Amino acid sequence: MNKTIRRASVFTLLLTLALLARATWVQFYDGTALADDQANRRNAIRTYAQPLGNIVVAGSPVTGSARTNGGDLAYRRTYKDGALYAAVTGYASQAYAPTQLEGIYQDLLNGTDSRLRTALDTVTGRRADPGDVLTTIDPAVQRAAYRALGGNKGAAVALDPKTGKILAVVSTPSYDPARLTDANTAGTAWKALTTDKDKPLTNRALRQPLPPGSTFKLVVAAAALENGLYEDVDEPTRSPDPYTLRGTSRILPNENKSAPCANASIRVALRYSCNNVFGKMAVDLGQDKVRAMAEKFGFDDEKRDVPVRAYSSVYPSGMDEAQTALSGIGQFDVTATPLQMAMVSAVMANDGKLVSPHMVSRITDADGDVLRDYDDADSERIVASDTAAQLRSAMETVVRDGTGTNARIDGVTVGGKTGTAQHGENNSRTPYAWFTSYGRSGGTGKEVAVAVMVEQSDAARSEVSGNGLAAPVARAMMRAALG
Question: What is the pLDDT of residue 425?
Fold first, then answer.
């Protein structure tokens, strides 16, 4: 064999090996990536080749599947009371990636979860029957929150303090997920929803942290008691009124000019929502101690899954003393979600312990056999039992005689805290109205913790307050949960 033929043979062999290597790469690496690509039409065809499993509320599915009229997608997702449960279910769309529980459990719901496969499925390659997601949502509480929020832009969350079960997750304005299910019409709906200035696709209950205003004073009060700054909630706090922010000439004003806020105790300061007391308290504690307490309650947790990933509530760092004082009243750069503030009240109601919040109870296969149970949730002590008891007593004073009277319920022990947070430069925009509370029924022994945030309403600016806008929503939710 002459040299030319030998070289040509070697070159041909190398080309063949390169071709084989590339084919192997495409088949086993790029092939997997292409198969997993959301834009791959075959994925949608496979997903909607059969009815999906369901998301279940109180034993009844709030989702379904319907036959389509022609085309290569045999089924589409349907929703019962879609706008009511949108903040829980999210959407499963033939055109867009699924969200919320639809997205987290998409493999279970479309039958591709490996836990669903039987031995026969493995042999035949048959797709498994889909499973179901059983939620902790109480339809009465969910509906009460949705109706009470009405046309307001806002959100609400309710928890069972003893179990961590999330009883309601509502965000308004809402949307009907059914608008996004059909690939033929989803594009028009998507454009309308994503360009809506009110952002209906945003889950305000879990994913829009905003300044919590005076509801954050509960965290500061807990830090003061836990760190021994004060012995109990009835000890005078040695707080001047007016209180001047250190290093400035600015006075931290109180909303109620006639309130007895000078040297007020924690109980009185919560009752009248005295800014001077909690601004000074935060400075006296120092930002590190306040932050440590906030983090125990769940602030700055970037991995809060319920199982939907909740956005982190934030207590800032690197503040001077004036900024620390403002953080003590839930302003400056402090932000929180309604879920976070419901957790604060849940801790008080549960003698200082936090049970991990979750809105899925179990996931099952098509036969109802449990694949995973989430109800045995972890718990953690956040504050001492005595601290929780003292703050419960003070919160009950707020509702009985203070700024939270609109949350009163006959025959129910209710404790709460109002909040009105500034919005915009120099408070130029409508403030946010907050209310967080717990309720305990003496007759049934049931308990619930709630947080409500009203971002925007039709009320005149002078009428915007936690007691006026948010407390009535909380009251409706507590009634539904404890009835």
Answer: 60
